[in-house]
Amino acid sequence: MSWWKPLVVILVPPLAMVVLQVLLYQLVGVIEGSDDPMSATLTPLKFLAVNLSIATAGVLAILLLVWIAKVPWRSLISAPRAFDARRLTYYLIAAMLLVGAGIGVVALVAPDAPGWTAFGVTGTTVGMLVIVVLSTPVQAVGEELMFRSAVLPAAASWVRAVRPALVVGLVVSGLGFAVVHGSADPWLFGYYTVIGISTGLMAIISRGIEAPVAFHVANNVLFTTVNTVMADGEAFAIDRSTDSGDASLLILGGVNVAMVVLVWLHERRARAARAGRPAGSIKPSVVGEGVHPVGQLFGREEGLEVADCLGRRAPHLVRAPGADRAAVVQQPVEQLQGDGIHPTVEPGGVHQREQALPAGLRVRRA
Questions:
Q1: What is the rounded radius of gyration, in angstroms, for the C-alpha atoms of the chain?
Q2: Are 70 and 192 in contact, with CB atoms under 8 Å apart?
Q3: Relative to the CA of 366, which of 20, 23, 129, 268 has its CA 20 to 30 Å away?
């Protein structure tokens, strides 16, 4: 796809999110009679406005990529497999335990760092908790759709080789995620970048957005809940100005890394179980089974079909000229790799594979 088309996917949804959030803030200001509707203090209605604007931008990002790249929207959620609710549940439980542990450690070693004041419950607290439970999961899904399902593969389509494409997609989506959080503090900006890259790795390793969505939901729900109940019954403010972060964010960055490792180990065991082999026999590789969102799975079984970055099937079946049409064999991945698979970007932004096949063999599309 043309070089400028990924820019549309990368830039338009965040800009739409900002515009919609400003408009909703103005509406909330009218409803609440506020003199400063753009203040950083989050009332329940302003928090709802934030969450709705992000969720809307996420859906817009998916629609743009589907329209521009001509790919099915399901392939942007998980590919080549279907969406897995059990995966989502497993990772959600694991993420809640990890994030909860991280919050506990921060409370012990740096209790003043998050800006907590005192425990308190008022009508404002209850209203915030209701909004957190009902809308924060939707907000987290919106961010994952925007940055992991759309921005990551869109940016990766600029590069033809698979490994560099992965790096470009991760870096652009991670930095974009940090930028939209609007922090001028280097600690916070770095922390948001770590979140963006970590959730991108979760999506690549697990071939879907269940793991990053689960982690994002657990992170945002738990942190916002704690911030709410520790605001002494008042609306709390989000401070992302310079000097608002500190080294305690390294603890939370470690939680992100721990979740990536957990996802890698779980997916490795799951692949080994499907293949009927010990987990240690599955060797990491970036060539093999198609994977969401940019097409290569770290650790694949032999003999799996070669698929492109957004889940479409690539040429993978070959047969000798003159052979019976039923005598079609599927080349193992290693044989195709040895025959010189070369990733390219075709119109639509989809990474396909060109194969230099041995004499006497030709490609047949599935």
A1: 23
A2: no
A3: 268
Q: Maximum Cα–Cα distance for the chain, whole Å?
A: 81
- Which residues are registered as beta bridge partners of 202? none
Q: Is 280 exposed, middle or buried (0-12, 13-18, 19+ CB in 10 A)?
A: exposed
Task: Render pLDDT for 201-235 as a digit per residue (tens, 0 to 9).
Answer: 999 999 999 999 999 999 999 999 999 999 999 98
- Judge residue 240's burial from the number of C-beta atoms within 10 Å of its C-beta, 0-12 exposed, 13-18 middle, 19 or more buried: middle
Q: Nearest Cα to 304, choosing from 196, 227, 207, 231? A: 207
**Would the pLDDT of 348 be above 70?**
no
Print burial letters for 328-346: b (CB count within 10 Å at least 16), e (below 16): eeebebeebbeeebebebe
Residue at token pair 């997609």: 169
Distances (CA, A) of 122 to 2, 97, 119, 136: 54, 27, 10, 20
Q: What is the pTM (predicted TM-score) of this model? A: 0.78
- Sign of the C-alpha dihedral, residues 258, 259, 261, 265? positive
Q: How far is CA 227 from CA 110, 192, 235, 284, in A?
A: 15, 18, 9, 40
Strand 342-346 and strand 350-354: the pairing is: antiparallel
The pLDDT of residue 1: 66
- Give the helix ranges, DSSP H, for 207-248: 210-229
E strand map for the chain = 317-319, 329-330, 342-346, 350-354, 362-364
- The residue whose two tokens read 């961010």 is 143
